[in-house]
Amino acid sequence: MTDTADVIVLGMGVGGELLAEHVADAGLDVVGIEANLVGGECPYWGCIPTKMMTRAANALAEARRVPHLAGTATVDPDWAPVATRIRLEATDTWDDRVAVERFEGKGGRFVRGRGRLDGPGRVQVGDRTFEARRGVVLATGTRPAIPPVPGLDTVEYWTNHEAVETKEVPASLAVLGGGAVGLEFAQVFARFGSKVTIVERSEGLLPPEEPESGELIAGVFGREGIDVRTGVGARSVARAQEGVEVTLDRGERLRSERLLVAIDQSAPRAPYRSSMVRKFDQPDNAPSGCSGTARVRCLGRRAWQRRPRSSRCFSAAGRGHQ
Ligand SMILES: Cc1cc2nc3c(=O)[nH]c(=O)nc-3n(C[C@H](O)[C@H](O)[C@H](O)COP(=O)(O)OP(=O)(O)OC[C@H]3O[C@@H](n4cnc5c(N)ncnc54)[C@H](O)[C@@H]3O)c2cc1C
After folding, report:
1. How much distance in Å is there from the Cα of 243 to the middle of ligand 1?
2. Which of 15, 98, 185, 286 could bridge across to 293 with cysteines, CB 3.0–4.6 Å?
3. Nearest-atom index, ligand 1, CA of 48
4. String of b and e for 65-97 (b: at least 16 CB within 10 Å)?
5. Nearest CA to ligand 1 atom 51
């Protein structure tokens, strides 16, 4: 059976959710489809819980400065309050009921499931098909990119999801990837007592940024006891007696209790789109230079006030993360 709606939003992360709510507020009939949790990465495995982690780690770092500045202080890190705050204050233990109810309260129709484009203006979710009278919004976001390192599929590893969900700080942690996400977790866990090693194939940390940023942060990390290896990649990964062993390009072996894969998360969804979208177009009135999540906001405010000439797919997927 085919169900119709004015607008179908595929992916209800930060971008899709905001847009879907604006569309519903504007009085249009909108179907929001989400495979995982409404809100996406940011509230559940990204911005918000990681900033709780960072805030706690900063408090520890600040307390450790007391002996140099203001007397004596004993610092005894405990992860339990961080894990509890993430569950109770940030994620409702990874439950999106409040967000779903907010969207439905605005008149939106919510469908849980993985959608796929099935023709112009048509989306399939399981055995249900939806057809859009005005347009389909692709807001499928990004996911952790898993590099083709031999052996990686034979070991247990963390992505940002497991790192946020952990109730314990590992005794040691190897981080593959010296971008913003990898560095954020590296510093948090190191400040909580983990012995952290970062492996980054580029010559410096934070490869997309100016080299000075990477040099600055490498200096800070060195002083904090984080082992930074740049200009070298992981040749292979294998299970070790208590954890994981990473063999580097130069043959050196690193052992750690946990392995975090934090390779650039902006893995493009382009292959998905090019194979699935028959008509992929920009809205007539999207301002130039407006991209990613920002473009969603533009669409949310204005695009639906005009009837497009034909049923179109608009991309709301951002390229970067931070
Ligand atoms: C560790 C980490 C820390 C971060 N910290 C910050 C920060 O401090 N500040 C900041 O501004 N940003 C931060 N970000 C970035 C932020 O999380 C993203 O920019 C934001 O989540 C992008 O929103 P989005 O809606 O484009 O995509 P997403 O949040 O990825 O949402 C896309 C949604 O689409 C769903 N989906 C995908 N395919 C389908 C399908 N076929 N059918 C149905 N649903 C589908 C997914 O399940 C997902 O829920 C961080 C990211 C990470 C990983």
Report:
1. 29
2. 15
3. 8
4. eeeeeeeeeeeeeebeebbebbbeebbeebebe
5. 46
Q: What is the pLDDT of residues 52-104, one digit of tens each?
A: 999 999 999 999 999 999 999 999 999 999 999 999 999 999 999 999 999 99
- Whether residue 293 is contained in a domain is answered as no
The enclosing domain of 217 has a CATH number of: 3.50.50.60
Distance separating alpha carbons of residues 293 and 51, to the nearest angstrom? 20
pLDDT at 269: 27
Tell me, yes or no, whether 247 and 149 share the same domain.
yes
CB atoms within 10 A of CB 52: 20
42 lines ligand 1 (CB under 6 A): yes
pLDDT for 318 beyond 60:
no
Q: Is the residue at 302 inside a domain?
A: no
Cα of 175 vs centre of ligand 1, distance in Å, is: 21
- pLDDT at residue 272 greater than cutoff 80: no
Is there a single domain that holds both residue 102 and residue 172? no
Is residue 113 within 8 A of residue 35, CB to CB? The reply is yes
156 and 137: one domain?
no
Q: Are residues 73 and 211 in the same domain?
A: no
Tell me: pLDDT of 178 over 80: yes
C-alpha separations of 235 from 100, 149, 258, 313 in Å:
43, 6, 17, 40
Spacing, Cα 123 to ligand 1 middle (Å): 21
Q: Whole domain around residue 204: which residue ranges? A: 144-265
**Domains in the chain, number:** 2
266 lines ligand 1 (CB under 6 A): no
Report the percent of the chain where pLDDT is more than 70: 82
- Do 92 and 239 lie in one domain? The reply is no
The pTM of this model reads: 0.86
Name the residue with tokens 């989400």: 34
User: For strand 243-248 and strand 234-240, is the pairing parallel, antiparallel, or unpaired?
Assistant: antiparallel
pLDDT category, 305, cuts 50, 70, 90? very low
**Ligand 1 center–CA 41 separation, angstroms:** 4
Ligand 1 touching residue 197 (CB < 6 A): no
What is the whole-number distance in angstroms between the Cα of residue 266 and the centre of ligand 1?
10
